[in-house]
Specification:
By secondary structure, the protein is mainly beta. The protein contains 2 helices and 25 strands.
Length: 323
């Protein structure tokens, strides 16, 4: 989560990080293609995006911190999906007389303290309540629930909450603010998290680099300590991640770049192998927060302003190797 209260300050920070790319003009941001925008008023700060594996043309999204615990189903263009038997009571895209705004699917026994990303497997949805702007939280974790049918239900109950913590953090806040995450994905049945580093006590000042952690246990009655597996020095301000349907590529979106990493030959050091990187212009794409694969060759990325862009994998150039 990051609320842009001072756009000029943010631009200066991004220049300092060395990632701002400003070759595009106006609305021409090729190879990105704007395919839709969510206009439903209840989706006001879209932070996570993932494609359903069970229901055609269904994508799950959620708002950032401070919202009620709920998920919204949208189609590929951003149009909200309302449960069939409630369509006469609620409106989605445009207000209609006598109807209330669709509140989404309520997630029972959960709280949105700082939901930042969402992942999915063949059966369950995983919601990462892992935002940690001040690096002082001791209650971070992941909600799990069976994927609901968005056409048939209006609420769903979590099946578990998995508490997590970073192995290096022993102070709250830490001396180094390296324990915030906005990016979560699933690979080979394991959940992974990418960190977003800040300077201590400076919410608008970031450090370059990310760390990759893996969740190896799923205890619900005690805290699960993450395992650090990899790092990347050039990737900065990661805000969303997703694994391709065939499991061969990892996509990571940041404020000013879209990265795609190939699966390592051995192990899970996803950030150390061959990669592609597409620089993006924050002034046009704005606050990018989420990414998901539409198929093995196509990515969708979205921002907190609720715009959805399509990117063809072949249009992403190879990135330079880490020093």
């Amino acid at each position: 989560m990051f609320s842009v209260n001072n756009s000029r300050l943010l631009m200066l920070v991004l220049f300092a990080c060395g990632h701002l790319h400003a070759e595009t003009e106006g609305t021409d941001i090729s190879p990105l293609k704007l395919i839709g925008s969510t206009t439903h008023d209840a989706i006001n700060e879209m932070s996570g995006l993932v494609k359903s594996k069970r229901f055609p043309n269904v994508y799950w999204v959620h708002n950032d911190s401070g919202d009620s615990p709920r998920l919204f189903a949208i189609d590929r263009t951003g149009r909200v999906i309302i449960t069939d038997f409630l369509k006469d009571e609620f409106y989605g895209e445009a207000e209609k007389k006598g109807k209330a705004s669709w509140p989404g699917i309520k997630i029972l026994l959960a709280a949105n303290q700082d939901w930042e990303d969402i992942a999915i497997d063949e059966d369950r949805i995983y919601i990462g309540d892992v935002g940690n702007n001040g690096n002082a939280r001791r209650d971070m974790g992941v909600y799990t629930l069976f994927e609901p049918n968005p056409h048939a239900v209006h609420e769903s109950r979590i099946s578990s909450f998995i508490p997590i913590r970073y192995p290096e953090q022993h102070q709250y806040p830490a001396l180094k603010w390296h324990y915030d995450s906005e990016s979560m994905f699933m690979a080979d049945g394991k959940l992974y998290f990418l960190t977003k580093h800040r300077q201590p006590n400076k919410h608008d000042s970031w450090e370059q680099g990310v760390h990759l952690y893996r969740l190896d246990s799923y205890n619900t009655t005690k805290t699960n300590v993450l395992t650090r597996v990899d790092s990347h020095e050039q990737l900065t301000l990661a805000t969303g991640a997703d694994l391709s349907p065939d499991g061969s590529r990892l996509a990571i979106v940041a404020y000013t770049a879209l990265w795609v990493f190939e699966k390592p030959d051995q192990g899970d050091n996803w950030l150390s192998g061959k990669s592609k990187m597409l620089p993006l212009d924050y002034r046009i794409t704005r606050q990018l927060e989420a990414v998901c694969w539409d198929d093995d060759d196509t990515l969708l990325i979205s921002n907190e302003q609720r715009e959805i862009y399509e990117v063809d994998l072949k249009d992403i150039p190879d990135s330079p190797k880490q020093p």
